[in-house]
Amino acid sequence: MSEAGSNNSDPEIERINLRISRSFREVVDETWRERGFNSRSEFIRYALRESVNHPEGAGFWKDLAISEAQFDEGEGRSSDEIKAEYGTNDE
């Protein structure tokens, strides 16, 4: 995840590249906007800090990564499919 054009002159700040699937990036983008973060980078920094400061929650991130891989391999199901199966309705 590179932020091209960033003019951050703080020598303590380093840029990293992060490779994730397009589908997961879309989920991340939707999440940071819904939660009121100013940018994707701000949200990812927050998530990383939380992961480091609260390692007991690491299982969540592992489960999320496994779910993403399963979905990308065609093993996942859409939320509409799950709602239909369990008879839930958001309306």
TrEMBL record:
Coiled-coil residue spans: none
Signal peptide: none
Compositional bias segments (type: Basic and acidic residues): 74-84
CDD domains xrefs: RHH_NikR_HicB-like
Alphabetized InterPro entries for the sequence: Arc_rbn_hlx_hlx (IPR013321), Ribbon_hlx_hlx (IPR010985)
GO biological process terms, semicolon-separated: regulation of DNA-templated transcription
Region (Disordered): 72-91
Domain of life, per lineage: Archaea
Name of the featured protein: Ribbon-helix-helix domain-containing protein
Species: Natronoglomus mannanivorans
